[in-house]
Write a structure and sequence with these properties.
5-stranded mixed sheet; 19 helices; about 10% helix; about 40% strand; globular
């Protein structure tokens, strides 16, 4: 059978909500990405700091520009912002950035979020209600003791008896939505055709409800009933946060509620009150009728389960689709239609505005006419800008911004109007429509999108009359910012916003506001973004080539063979995303350095002459910029030569490289350097050798030597590892003792007394020092403000595996001891105790380091095991009132990390004599703006975290690494230097222009194309990519039609319908720019683009890779659809001057008109270089003739609309998928030319994509339907149920859940040499060879899927033993791990049993109870503790945990795609 694994998380944002979730004071944004729940908090970052940091990351200025102003903060800002920074500064505000707190993958599809104020939450924050696909509700709250979410209630309304009428469609066919009462008394889930589930919540009767109580009018105020408190301190009220829920039939509330459209709970009512929009006629009967909708408001009496109708407004326009409850002082509800907005207040009074001329034609409801706006409101979203001033923000489907303004007189709404935001005021910063809007704070809103990056948008109000003068003063500096920022466009958080939109927006706002125009009132700008590759339309696998020969030489060995290139995004957000599994460094220089065993770079300060030493001498310029402005000056390199002789050398770093430094007191022959760094505020260089510690001043003058000598015993222990955190130094020695030293004000290094007997008696394995800037490890005394050197924390790991934490310089007793670290439990605390005999893991090394980026960083405990796997723990404090002791409040939470390290390579013969020294993890403070940790060794990796992600382990492309160090010089800013196992050293940077890493756990480069792009292919001979794009154009009816004279009257329609107009673009991957563009005919769109290896000459049988394009010409519904097949060659031409990349062009080879039907799919077929074309309801085999025509030679009649055609390369076996009629399996023969139907699936299947999956000598058919089901079918004429093969056999179905695959590709699979799957195949092949010498087993392959949510996944075959053991393993993991929101992963992956699939199985059932293995569960294997893992491995039939690890490494993740 097969295993389904998810390679990347979903990136499309479907829902969002802002609420105080972590605690009562916090401001959290909850974001739902289909099946992933993320909780963010907001962090203000000053705008100048944000720009300054980005300038540091990629500054193209010279070093002198920094140095002149190093020692003063103002100067530093001025250096980034130009001379007038003080003026600009007064005008700048904060940017709101998002910081991820936690994320939870759910076994369900989120369809709604609601906030519930609850007095019973453990954290004091509010609870979150999740609505899940079909009809489930889960209520979750934050649990501060587990630092996770806790499910408090589960509600399930999917029972059969609620399914109303026997002819009702399945639940998933209805739009189900969630609405919550603003007073948190109840929530309603509308599901099915007309069922409403009401969940009640217990609220403590607050005084808020009695704010408007007037004793004179209302009589004496009622006294609150005190809940009696029982002896044990519990209240007599029940403590569950909810009480019973019940289901209402909507027609029982009112007989006219037969076809509900939408509902919302209204603000400012004593009892839960909702407004509902409904109709008595079904939506299919409304043609020719108008104003059928009714808006009614009901008050619910939860105790009596009864309701009262408060008001009813009839005769509303037919196109209303949404009810939005408005907060006070506006109040009431806003009804949104496609052509109008209508506000209905509490008394039923209505005001409306029509936003295009169709409003008048479609309704007789009285509306204010604003038809000149010409807006279409389908798919728009509305959110509060400012309730007090009655302003609401609306984002249209094309991303434009508009403001709805209510005129409020006292408490009465007297009208509303709409105005668009001008694009120079930021009205077009959102490229396409949004799925959700949530207001974050007073001047900031989150716009989540399913087809583009999600943005945090802030706004500022216009200034007064002084704006004119200010603008004039600002102009020069603003222009300066413009220029500088062109270079920085597309950094991780900031796109080309600052370069193009930001500065002009400010200027224009000033100019328009002074002229009295209204457009300048609000100015919008982007503060932050969540990167998304959602709505993957199509993908290709191809090469990305560096532009110059020099770059190509540099990148050898660190570039993958191929890249995964996908066309993603919707509308103007269309872009190309280039994805690689590993980080591909940008190499600035590489050279042979076989003797290097490590690197340490440092920025030491030159010794200051005594006469000049003042206060500033030893201090630097504030924590943030401590060394950022200074380049590294020296590098110490330990070396081992061919004879095994160990030395160390020092080099001076220059702008572009480094040169050996001579004439200093540095001793190369002193031995191998273990660790090096600076102490005493960069005044002393420390070099730790095996036998001593050498201290040098900033010019390498020797100032002190500390020998490793035990005076009592005379022993000379060798140093194994060292850690430096100014002003302390920690050494761990080979006799398992530790040595702690401190550098004092006189810059002398002295050993500290080990007062604690535990320090001297325990055998220590490893340790590290950490400077605690966040205060997470500080004890209770930290509130008074600690001195700078008192926030250094020492972590020591004993040989027995206990973690001891000391707060330096206090060495008398540890502040925290955790014995259970070797058991790697999911939650590590001081009192964690495992059962006796529980299996342990061997821990090689621990490191505590900050991980993050410029916006936020956080300490993590990184544990490295002896097999090089990494476990990452996040420390957190339990908020407790009575005690602040670390031992009770500090806990470590294990973060998910499915990445498994590679096995060490066996050493080559000539390296046997050298003992392999373990290379230690390196903490790097700033590599390309990331605070990161590097893991050298056989699986070299960075642990990267951006402020919006969890830490992710990413491999560095290339072989093993012996040593690395950060490297910050003028020629290589914020880069690193490393030496690989082949002895080549590289000075390199992590590319960050348009590139992110931690967002999807892979390297992702996103190139905006700003047009709707939906197909892409790679052309291997030229190395270019061809994409098919669409732009929307107004549609006009054909003028010259003789039959339809009335079409002439429609030529001056003001708001014309739009149709796609296709174009084909040629893209050069060296610069990712468009180098050729071909416009198609009007109304012609690209349906598919493939690179096919076609025969171009009948005489010589020459073959060529040609670009084949299938198109459709659609001129409205009165004329039939036509199609075309276009064949292009890519030819080399003379490039444009100064643009060497423009040396290719598309040349038309063939143009075949298809008179009936569109060309929807293309494929190669057979062995003679012909193509298979799906044209309308036929699939035709065509050959390219030399005169440029395509000659048909064979065909097969199809049913409705062919979505995919596939051929198993060179065999003539074909698959054709129909959008509504299932899968056809056919064969094609060449002598004579004909196509034969072998077998069909059920004809009731809606297939989006289909592919072959060869597995040894078996061939499976994998079909993906529109519900996300992945069906495994097989052709077997010998099976009795298959009617001699006419019916395909259905082996199993697996649900992809929230991520239905829409595109697929069969790819070769890379496997390790000792793979169990490979060995089984070789055995089978040798057994079969004796019986059938001609048969060859298929090479191992897998299918790669992409889905509209931006998730990538793959399906790979398993051997029989692997399948059996992994199926058992998923069952064990399922029962051993907690599942968030009370969801069942097994049920989530089960095929849809109701609806069409339930009634009509995909094919003849021959499943034998087998199913696909769920890789998402296997990926959580590392979340288990060591003991539980060993226990399960034995129980399931593996030889041990290591064998499970080897199998998972072969099956999970992108391991099978080694070439990406």
């Amino acid at each position: 059978m097969q295993c389904y694994t998810e390679l990347t998380p979903p990136t499309a944002v479907t829902h969002s909500l802002c609420l105080p979730f972590i605690n009562a004071q916090s401001n959290n944004l909850v974001v739902a990405r289909a099946s992933l729940l993320q909780i963010f908090t907001t962090k203000p970052v000053s705008a100048e700091l944000d720009k300054a940091q980005n300038a540091q990351l990629q500054s193209f200025r010279s070093a002198e520009h920094y140095d002149s102003r190093i020692n003063d903060d103002e100067g530093l800002e001025a250096s980034f912002l130009g001379g007038d920074s003080v003026l600009v500064r007064s005008d700048r505000s904060n940017y709101t950035k998002l910081v991820l707190v936690a994320e939870f993958p759910l076994a369900g599809t989120i369809t709604g979020l609601a906030r519930i104020k609850s007095k019973t939450t453990a954290s004091g924050g509010e609870a979150l209600l999740l609505a899940l696909k079909d009809a489930k509700l889960s209520m979750v709250e934050w649990d501060p003791e587990k630092n996770s979410i806790n499910t408090t209630s589960i509600h399930y309304y999917e029972q059969e008896d609620l399914q109303a009428a026997p002819w009702a469609a399945p639940l998933s066919h209805y739009v189900n939505f969630l609405a919550a009462d603003p007073g948190s008394r109840c929530a309603a889930l509308k599901f099915g055709s007309r069922s409403l589930a009401i969940v009640q919540f217990k609220t403590v009767e607050e005084d808020i409800d009695m704010d408007d109580w007037d004793e004179e009018l209302d009589g004496p105020k009622p006294v609150k009933e005190q809940s009696t408190t029982l002896a044990n301190g519990t209240s007599s009220n029940e403590e569950t946060p909810y009480s019973t829920s019940f289901v209402l039939r909507l027609p029982n509330l009112d007989p006219s509620l037969i076809h509900p459209v939408h509902l919302a709970f209204l603000h400012e009512y004593r009892e839960p009150t909702f407004g509902i929009l409904s109709s008595t006629t079904s939506p299919s009967l409304v043609l020719g009728r108008r104003d059928q909708l009714t808006y009614m408001v009901f008050t619910l009496d939860l105790q009596q389960k009864a309701s009262t109708t408060i008001l009813s407004v009839t005769g509303l326009p037919q196109d209303l689709f949404r009810v939005i409850a408005l907060p006070a002082p506006v109040g009431g509800a806003l009804l949104v239609g496609t052509n109008e907005l209508i506000h209905i207040d509490q008394s039923g009074k209505s005001h409306g505005v029509g936003v295009n001329q169709f409003a008048k034609q479609t309704t007789s409801f009285s509306l204010v006419d604003q038809a000149e706006l010409e807006l279409k409101l389908e798919g728009c979203e509305v959110e509060v800008l400012s309730a007090e001033s009655g302003e609401f923000l609306m984002v249209l489907r094309d991303g434009r911004l508009a403001v709805i303004m209510f005129r409020v007189d006292g408490r009465i709404v007297s009208g509303l109007s709409l105005r668009l935001i001008a694009s120079e005021a930021g009205g077009s910063i959102i490229p396409t429509g949004v799925a959700t809007l949530s207001k974050l704070n007073k001047a900031c809103i989150f716009a989540g999108s399913e087809g583009a990056d999600s943005l945090v948008i802030g706004w500022t109000r216009k200034q007064g009359q002084s704006g004119k003068r200010k603008a004039r003063l600002q102009d020069p500096s603003l222009d300066d910012i413009d220029m500088d920022d062109e270079d920085m466009e597309g950094l991780e958080d900031e796109d080309d916003l600052y370069g193009e939109d930001y500065a002009p927006a400010k200027q224009s706002s000033n100019s328009t506001s002074t002229s009295g125009g209204k457009t300048g009132e609000l100015v919008f700008r982007v503060h932050d973004r969540l990167v998304s590759i959602a709505a993957i339309r199509d993908f290709a696998i191809g090469q990305a080539i560096p532009s110059t020969k020099e770059d190509q030489a540099n990148q050898i060995g660190v570039t993958s063979d191929l890249s995964f290139v996908c066309a993603c995004g919707e509308g103007n957000a269309g872009s190309i995303a280039v994805i690689n599994r590993e980080i591909q460094p940008k190499v600035i220089g590489h050279f042979e350095f076989p003797e290097a065993r490590g690197f340490w770079t440092m920025a030491a300060q030159k010794p200051i002459p005594k006469a000049l030493q003042g206060d500033k001498g030893a201090t630097s310029i504030g924590g943030e910029y401590e060394t950022s402005a200074q380049y590294d000056r020296y590098m110490i390199v330990p070396k081992v030569d061919l004879d095994g002789y160990e030395t160390s050398d020092v080099y001076a770093l220059t702008g572009a490289g480094f040169e050996a430094l001579t004439g200093t007191e540095f001793e190369p022959a002193a031995g191998l350097t273990i660790e090096a760094g600076t102490m005493g505020n960069h005044m002393r260089i420390i070099q730790v050798l095996k036998t001593a510690v050498h201290c040098y001043d900033g010019d390498f003058g020797l100032t002190q030597i500390l020998p490793m000598l035990d005076e009592e015993t005379g022993a000379e222990p060798r140093v194994d590892s060292a850690s430096i955190a100014d002003p302390f130094l920690l050494l761990v020695r080979d006799d398992a003792s530790v040595f702690i030293a401190k550098i004092f004000k006189n810059l002398e290094l002295e050993e500290l007394e080990k007062e604690d007997s535990v320090l001297t008696s325990t055998k220590w394995a490893t340790g590290c020092l950490y400077e605690d800037r966040s205060g997470i490890f500080a004890g209770a005394h930290s509130d008074e403000g600690a001195k700078t050197d008192e926030n250094i924390v020492m972590f020591l790991l004993s040989k027995a595996g206990a973690l001891h934490v000391y707060a330096l310089p206090e060495l008398s007793k540890p502040v925290y001891v955790a014995e259970g670290l070797p058991f790697v439990p999911p939650l590590l605390s001081a009192n964690y105790a495992a059962r006796r005999g529980t299996a342990k893991e061997t821990i090689k090394e621990i490191l505590v380091a900050d991980l993050g980026d410029m916006t936020s960083s956080y300490p993590y405990l990184i544990v490295r095991h002896d097999n090089d796997d990494v476990t990452i723990y996040q420390p957190f404090r339990i908020p407790s009132t009575n005690t602040q002791e670390l031992s009770t409040t500090l806990q470590f939470q294990k973060l998910p990390n499915p990445v498994l390290a590679d096995d060490p390579e066996p050493p080559a013969d000539d390296e046997d004599d050298e003992i392999k020294r373990p290379t230690l993890m390196r903490r790097c403070d700033n590599i390309a703006g990331y605070k990161t940790v590097f893991l050298p060794g056989d699986s070299p990796s960075f642990i990267l975290r951006s402020s919006k992600t969890l830490p992710k382990v990413l491999r560095l492309q290339g072989g093993g690494v012996r040593g690395m160090s950060s490297f910050h010089t003028e020629g290589c800013e914020r880069g690193f230097i490393y030496a690989d196992s082949k002895g080549i050293a590289r000075v390199s940077q992590i590319p960050i222009r348009n590139t992110t890493y931690a967002d999807i756990g892979m390297s992702l480069k996103k190139i905006p194309l700003n047009s709707d792009i939906h197909s892409i292919t790679h052309h291997p001979p030229s190395g270019t990519y061809v994409v098919g794009c669409d732009t929307r154009e107004p549609f006009e009816l054909p003028k010259e039609d003789d039959y339809h004279k009335e079409w002439q009257h429609e030529k001056d329609l003001p708001l014309k319908p739009t149709v796609g107009h296709g174009s084909i673009k040629l893209i050069n991957p060296s610069t990712w720019t468009v180098i050729d563009n071909i416009e198609l005919e009007p109304c012609e769109i690209v349906m598919c683009i493939e690179t096919l290896n076609l025969e171009v000459s009948e005489s010589t049988n020459e073959r060529k890779h040609l670009i084949t394009v299938g198109t459709a010409v659609s001129r409205g519904e009165d004329l039939p659809i036509r199609g075309r097949v276009l064949v292009y060659d890519i030819v080399t031409v003379i490039p444009e001057p100064g643009k060497p990349e423009t040396d290719k062009k598309l040349k038309l080879v063939a143009n075949e008109e298809i008179p009936r039907g569109a060309v929807t799919a293309l494929s190669e077929i057979g062995t003679q270089g012909l193509m298979l074309v799906a044209q309308g309801q036929k699939c035709m085999v065509r050959g390219l003739k030399e005169d440029g025509t395509l000659l048909p030679v064979a065909f097969m009649d199809m049913s409705c609309y062919v979505t995919t055609v596939r051929e198993l390369k060179g065999t003539g076996l074909c698959l054709m998928a129909d959008a509504v009629k299932g899968v056809w399996f056919t064969g094609y023969t060449e002598e004579p030319y004909r196509m034969v139907l072998f077998g069909k699936s059920s004809t009731k299947l809606e297939i989006l994509t289909v592919d072959f999956l060869p597995d040894g000598d078996e061939l499976f058919i994998v079909a993906c339907d529109s519900d996300g089901g992945i069906h495994i079918l097989q052709f077997d004429p010998d099976h009795p149920k298959s009617l001699q093969g006419h019916l395909l056999l259905h082996r199993t179905t697996f649900s992809a859940g929230a991520h239905p695959p829409t595109r697929s590709m069969l790819l070769p699979r890379t496997l390790p040499a000792d793979s169990e799957y490979l060995s089984q195949h070789i055995n089978n092949a040798t057994a079969n060879a004796s019986s059938d010498p001609d048969s060859h087993p298929a090479p191992p392959s897998l299918i790669l899927f992409s889905s509209p949510t931006g998730a990538l996944s793959c399906l790979a075959a398993l051997s029989e033993p692997q399948y059996r053991r992994l199926s058992f393993l998923t069952g064990q993991v399922l029962s051993s791990l907690p599942h968030h929101a009370g969801l069942n992963p097994k049920d989530y992956r089960a095929p849809a049993s109701s609806g069409a699939v339930g009634r009509f199985p995909p094919a003849v059932d021959a499943g034998m109870g087998r199913s696909i293995v769920d890789g998402a569960l296997l990926a959580r294997w590392n979340e288990l503790g060591a003991g539980r893992r060993a226990e399960i491995a034995g129980r399931v039939g593996f030889a041990g945990v290591d064998e499970v690890r080897d199998t998972l490494r072969e099956v999970l993740g992108a391991a099978g795609l080694g070439y990406l």
